[in-house]
Every structure is written in C-alpha cells, then in structure tokens.
Known about the structure:
This protein is of the alpha+beta class. It has a single domain, classed as Clavaminate synthase-like (Double-stranded beta-helix), CATH 3.60.130.10. Helix content is 23%, strand content 22%. It contains 8 helices and 15 strands. The protein has helices spanning 27-40, 52-59, 103-108, 147-152, 156-162, 171-176, 185-190, 224-238; strands spanning 4-7, 14-17, 42-45, 86-87, 127-134, 142-146, 166-169, 194-197, 199-201, 208-210, 216-219, 244-247, 254-258, 262-266, 276-281. The strands form 4 sheets. A 7-stranded mixed β-sheet has the order 1-2-3-13-5-15-4, with helices on one face. A 3-stranded antiparallel β-sheet has the order 12-6-14.
Amino acid sequence: MGIQIRQLHPLFVGEVSGIDITKPLTKEQAAAIDAGMDRYAVLVFHDQPFTDEEQVAYSRNFGEIERAVGSNVTAEKDRRLSADLADVSNLDKDHKPLARDDRRRMFNLGNQLWHSDSSFRAVPAKYSLLSGRQVTVGEGNTEFADMRAAYDDLDAKTKAEIEDLICEHSLIYSRGTLGFSEFTPEEKVMFTPVRQRLVRTHPVTGRKSLFLSSHIGTIVGWPMPEARAFIRDLTEHATQPKYVYSHGWKQYDLVMWDNRQTMHRVRSFDNTKIRDMRRTTIAGTGPTVEQVKAA
C-alpha cells in the first residue's frame, strides 16, 4: 500500500505507516516523507527499533547531520554516544540515571522549556529525529507547538511590528531562567549569543512562522526587560492548547519535527527510571540573518 499519513491534530502532526524506516529508503520514499514534513511539520513513526547506525543512515536522507558538539556541558570523556547523536537521556556512561544534583542533569532540565533545537547556533537546525530506545511510559511526553498557526492568528498590527525583529539566542539565557548560571570560561565562549529573525518563511511552502525559543534573551535594539516581556507574551500566545500536540512515547517510536515550523518541550518524569532517548539533527542550510557581534 505504500506510505500513508494520518493527521493526529487539527493543525499539524502526521502518523506515518506503511514503511520500515530502519531499512534503506528509495528516493521516492524519502521525497514522500520530506513532503509530509512540509505539510505536517511533525511526523510520528511507531515500531522502529533503530540501531545508532541505522538512525544516522535514515537521517542522512534529509541533509547533513549536525554534530552534537557545543550544545551541552558534558565533558568529552563522559559521552555515551558518538557525536552524530545528541544524547537527550538521563543516563551516564554506565547506563545508570544521573544523580539528582548532577550538573549535566541540571543543564538538561532546560529541555523542559519551550524551544527550537539549535536556535542558539548561527545556522539553526532543520529537522530533529528522536528515537525512543527506552521510554518512561505515561510521563515525559514531548509537546509540540505549531508556530505557523500561531503566526497566522496574530493581528495585523503585531505581524507588522515583529516582521523585521532580530532576537539573540543562547543556552546561557535558557538555562539562566532555571537558575543555572555557573558556566566555565570555555562554556561562555561556546554559548556566545547568536542572532535570529523572529519571523521565518518556509523555503518550500512559503508559510510564515514565529521563531521562538527559551534561548531568546533579548531583541536587538530593545531594552532587555521590555524584550523579555514581549517574548514571554508571544510564547504564551503560541503555546495555547489549540496549537499544541502532546506525544505519549512508546518504545521504538521515532518522532521527527521541523524546527523551522515548531517549538517543543519535554514534560517531567521520574528521574530514577531509565529514559534512553537519542536524537539526530539535520543541519540547516544557512543563517536566518547576518551574524554580527552580539549587542
């Protein structure tokens, strides 16, 4: 029967069936999935028991892999996975849950804030692909918000106001909202703020969307308190329940999403349970705005 996609939310999100994505794809299959991403922004695949190598091979159908470096406070010696995969688990190298006060766990709690992956990079990410190798059933859902619909519903005055605004993004900003502020000098350099447009246009569909994230610390040319209040209000608007889909994980789910069209966050879960989640990220094709020295 081939690939079939069933819409899971009134606005976005498609559930894909009729394909085993752990196996090599044909060009036609990859194109069909790409087209599904353009339309639905989030695709859900069930029963895909990937190995790391298979997940990387599948991901490469959609672009260049973004290396998982410069995005966390995990020392190189403590890595569990290759740099082709971002480790968004709660585990140490011995596959045991991190201690409650472990610095890596404290930093990763930022994933519970609404964000767009790699918006803190000069070239932000295109797709993210998250594989649930060992999940916490009934908790730790991942929520997605449709930034296209959120933009569409803004009034004309607000759309005009935000059209050309530029924001500064950094992991220092998002982690700072949780009280995580003790960065090493090397980390401060690694997390130097970058600039991104607040309004993006999808290169295929032409739809505009809000490029929001907890990584935003200010709007260029605005007083910081005013900028943060404004971004807070926009985020409240964009994450209303009508724009949000919540994914309850099953083992071996693979969820891929378009960071150019959505925001997401993980909900809390029992950190004493093993949660093994591995993400590949497809690099974007260019910056949203020229990078200059942060204000």
